[in-house]
Structures are given as structure tokens and as C-alpha cells.
Specification:
InterPro entries: Acyl_CoA_acyltransferase, Bact_Acetyltransf, GNAT_dom. By secondary structure, the chain is of the alpha+beta class. The protein is built from 4 helices and 5 strands; from the N terminus they run βααβββαβα.
Length: 152
């Protein structure tokens, strides 16, 4: 097993992991372009687990950390926040600790950058994993989708 940092060349694979359903295929190119640029700007730190030797590597799991310039807040003068994103494991490789190891690398990357607060979205299936890593559920988050300025 090889664990390595994601590069801009991995952006299409990361987009496919984020949008695996064909119904979402149209979203992949824009997301891949964003990931490639965010990696180059240092705003995305991704990690990939690969099976196989250097000649025939296959990505079997991944996780990413998106940095957000949030601004200082009460109790935390550090202006950066981070969000864990794109946690994915190939079904044949699940329950082997890959996601936990990759998310831990993301958390280490956040610590190295001085980030004090990390959030994520989760499914019921993954809630135990994140709880073991110290994440706590919050009932306070809400969201709103604003229409585009042209009304769409």
C-alpha cells in the first residue's frame, strides 16, 4: 500500500470519487478544475491510498482537506478553518482503516498549518469513524442556496 499526497494530475480522479454517479457526471469537470487549482494554490491538501507497485498503481481510497479563510473568531484568533472532503474508499477496500488513516493525515496537515477547527459532512455509515477521531455532531449548522443573479 502506498499513501501519497494528491497532485493537480489527480484532480479528475478526485472529482470522480466526489461525483461517482453518472447523474452527476456533468459536475466533474468544473470540480476537477477547481481541485487542480486549489492544490496549486495550497488551499487543498489531498491524500490517496494506492494498491500495487509503481508500474500498476490503482487508487483505492482518498481524502482531502479544504482550507477556508474564515477570519478570527471568539476563542480562536487563527483566521483559517478547514473542512474534510472527498473521503472515499473503493468497496473492496473498506473496513481496513484506510479512511481513518487518510483523514488522520488531513488532520495532521491542518495542524501543521495552524488550523484549530476542522468540520465535515458525514453519512450515518461514517459517523462512527469520525467520532473515533474526535469529531462531535452539531445541530447548529444550516444552509441556504442563493439563486444566481440572473434568476436561475
Amino acid at each position: 500500500m502506498i499513501i501519497r499526497a494528491a497532485t493537480p494530475a489527480d484532480a479528475e480522479c478526485i472529482a470522480l470519487q466526489r461525483y461517482p454517479d453518472e447523474a452527476d457526471a456533468a459536475a466533474r469537470p468544473a470540480y476537477a478544475a477547481w481541485v487542480a487549482g486549489a492544490i496549486q494554490r495550497g488551499l487543498y491538501a489531498g491524500f490517496l491510498a494506492l494498491d500495487g507497485d509503481r508500474g500498476a498503481e490503482q487508487i483505492v481510497a482518498g481524502a482531502g482537506l479544504t482550507l477556508l479563510e474564515w477570519g478570527p473568531s471568539r476563542g480562536d484568533p487563527q483566521p483559517w478553518r478547514a473542512r474534510i472532503v472527498n473521503v472515499w474508499t473503493h468497496p473492496d477496500w473498506r473496513r481496513r482503516g484506510l479512511a481513518q488513516g487518510l483523514v488522520t493525515r488531513c488532520l495532521d496537515s491542518a495542524r501543521q498549518r495552524g488550523v484549530g477547527r476542522v468540520s465535515l459532512g458525514t453519512s450515518a455509515q461514517a459517523r462512527g469513524l469520525y467520532g473515533r477521531l474526535g469529531f462531535q455532531a452539531s445541530a447548529a449548522e444550516m444552509w441556504l442556496a442563493l439563486p444566481a443573479q440572473d434568476g436561475t
